[in-house]
Design brief:
Shape of chain B: globular
Distance between the termini of chain B: 41 Å
Helix content of chain A: under 10%
Strand content of chain A: over 45%
Oligomer: heterodimer
């Protein structure tokens, strides 16, 4: 298994509270991704990174920000959590940019916003 | 724009029966196609991928998929279902123009009856 950990694994928070989710990898892969998983929607890309300090938006980036100060860590921040952000969040990594390259997924973080 | 449609959010088969999970894609350029499996409370794991080599792709755990350009399909099959195959399955598409970003279908939950 690819060395990807996510923390926390579960979190319950209240509306309006800031939340930061962490993805940590030990594979030294350049590309990292954050997805959210919701019933009936599959996985949707929030943000991705193609190197330290290089990030870009995905299809559902509103309300989220990211940072990557080290190769191994990719942080996802909800500045002011809303109930619509209740979801399961997955981090993924890939060694190279390219459509043929698979992504390796972390175990996920289940976030509940009350 | 690329898209993926998985026909049937839930599929139920008996143990030993054929498994067929349907995936149709839309892409303006030759696509790369993936099937991932998600077991309960886990991240996604790659089953197989199509990268324009052989149209019949064999994956792990006895699964295979056939790329049919004329039908824009990439259906997943397994000749004989096992109880351990019960999971959620996701089809995803990527192309060179998107630099490796994956677009996922909404997922199909497979149940296997004894």
């Amino acid at each position: 298994d690819a060395g990807i950990t996510q923390s926390p694994r579960h979190k319950v928070t209240e509306t309006g509270t800031p939340v930061t989710l962490r993805c940590h990898q030990t594979e030294n892969h350049r590309y990292m991704y954050w997805y959210r998983q919701d019933p009936g929607h599959g996985l949707r890309l929030i943000h991705y990174s193609y190197g330290v300090k290089d990030t870009d938006k995905g299809e559902v980036s509103d309300g989220y920000s990211v940072s990557r100060s080290k190769t191994e860590d990719f942080l996802l921040t909800l500045e002011s959590a809303t109930s619509s952000q209740t979801s399961v969040y997955f981090c993924a990594i890939s060694p190279q940019r390219g459509a043929h390259n698979e992504q390796f997924f972390g175990p996920g973080t289940r976030l509940t916003v009350l | 724009a690329q898209s993926v449609t998985q026909l049937g959010s839930h599929v139920s088969v008996s143990e030993g029966a054929l498994v067929l999970l349907r995936c149709n894609y839309s892409s303006s350029v030759p696509p790369y196609l993936f099937w991932y499996v998600q077991y309960p409370n886990q991240g996604l794991q790659l089953l197989l991928k199509y990268t324009s080599a052989a149209t019949l792709v064999k994956g792990i755990n006895g699964f295979e998929a056939e790329f049919k350009k004329s039908e824009t399909s990439f259906h997943l099959t397994k000749p004989s279902a096992h109880m351990s195959d019960a999971a959620e399955y996701f089809c995803a598409v990527s192309d060179q123009n998107q630099g490796g970003k994956l677009i996922f279908g909404q997922g199909t939950e497979l149940s296997v009856k004894p």
